[in-house]
Write a structure and sequence with these properties.
Shape: globular
Strand content: 15-25%
Order of helices and strands: HEEHEEEEEHHHHEEH
C-alpha cells in the first residue's frame, strides 16, 4: 500500500496541472489548412490566421446569434487555398482535455475543451475550394510506379501479398493446393485521408447517390474508416426514393457540379 501511494504521488508531480481549468477551443480543419500551418516558419512573428466573432446586439442572450469566421493570414503554398472559413460551433460533445509534452518528457495539461468547431470554406470562397479539390483529384490519379530489382529471386524476405496466405515453399515435398482468400476476408489498407476525399468527390461526379457497399467496393477501403469520411462530406438518406444511399452535402455539391461542367 505504501508503495502504491508513492507511485501515485510521483505521477502527479510529473503532470503540470496549472492550466487544467483553462478553456480551450478544439477545431477540425481541412488537410490543406493543416499543411499550410505546419509549413509556417516558427520565427515568423506574423499570425497564421485570425478569428472574427460577429454578434447580434439585439439577440445578445441567444447563442445562435454568434457567428465565427476565420481569415487566413499571409501567403499559402496552395494557390487556390480559400482565405475565409466559416466555423460551426458545437457544445454537445464528449468532455475532452488537451495535453502537451516537451522534448524533456514534461507533460502538462493545457486546459479543458470548451467549444468544438467544424471548419468549412466560407460561401464567397467555395469556388476557390472547388478548384483546389479538382487539383488534388488530378494529382491523386497520377500513379508513380517504381521498378526495383530484387537480388534474392527466391523471395524469402518478401512479404506475402493478399490472396497468397497459405502458400508454401516450392521446395517442400508436400505441396498443397493454395486456396485464394476471399476479397471480403482481406485486410484493407487505409489511404491518406485527403486522397480518399478526392476519390469520393470523383465518384460523386459519376452519379449523385451511392450505397456504402458500392463505395467500399469502389475505394477498397475499410467500411468504418470510409463511413467517417462520408459523415463529414455527405448526407445519408433514411427515407424517400434514394433511401439507404449517400449524397454530397449542399456545400460540396456545387464544387462537384462545377467539375462536371
Amino acid at each position: 500500500m505504501e508503495e502504491e501511494r508513492g507511485n501515485g504521488s510521483s505521477s502527479s508531480r510529473n503532470l503540470d496541472t496549472g492550466k487544467a481549468e483553462s478553456p480551450v477551443w478544439l477545431m477540425k480543419c481541412p488537410v490543406v489548412v493543416a499543411k499550410s500551418w505546419n509549413s509556417h516558419n516558427p520565427s515568423d512573428p506574423h499570425p497564421l490566421s485570425k478569428v472574427v466573432l460577429s454578434l447580434d446586439p439585439l439577440r445578445a442572450d441567444d447563442p445562435s446569434s454568434l457567428e465565427f469566421k476565420m481569415e487566413m493570414a499571409g501567403s499559402s503554398g496552395a494557390a487556390n487555398l480559400p482565405k475565409s472559413y466559416s466555423l460551426n460551433m458545437f457544445k454537445d460533445f464528449v468532455p475532452m482535455c488537451v495535453f502537451s509534452e516537451t522534448n524533456q518528457g514534461k507533460v502538462s495539461m493545457e486546459g479543458k475543451v470548451e467549444h468544438k468547431f467544424d471548419m468549412k470554406p466560407h460561401g464567397s470562397n467555395i469556388e476557390e475550394y472547388g478548384k483546389l479539390c479538382r487539383e488534388r483529384t488530378n494529382k491523386s490519379m497520377i500513379k508513380n510506379r517504381q521498378i526495383q530489382v530484387i537480388d534474392n529471386d527466391r523471395g524469402i524476405h518478401m512479404r506475402p501479398m493478399p490472396g497468397m496466405i497459405g502458400l508454401i515453399s516450392s521446395t517442400s515435398k508436400d505441396k498443397k493446393k493454395t486456396q485464394p482468400v476471399k476479397q471480403s476476408d482481406m485486410k484493407r489498407t487505409r489511404r491518406d485521408r485527403g486522397e480518399l476525399e478526392d476519390i469520393v468527390f470523383k465518384l460523386f461526379e459519376k452519379q449523385p447517390n451511392w450505397t456504402l457497399k458500392q463505395l467500399v467496393q469502389e475505394t477498397d477501403q475499410p467500411a468504418q474508416f470510409l463511413k467517417e469520411i462520408l459523415n463529414e462530406l455527405c448526407v445519408y438518406n433514411k427515407r424517400g426514393t434514394n433511401q439507404g444511399t449517400y449524397e454530397l452535402k449542399p456545400e460540396y455539391k456545387k464544387s462537384v457540379e462545377d467539375t462536371a461542367e
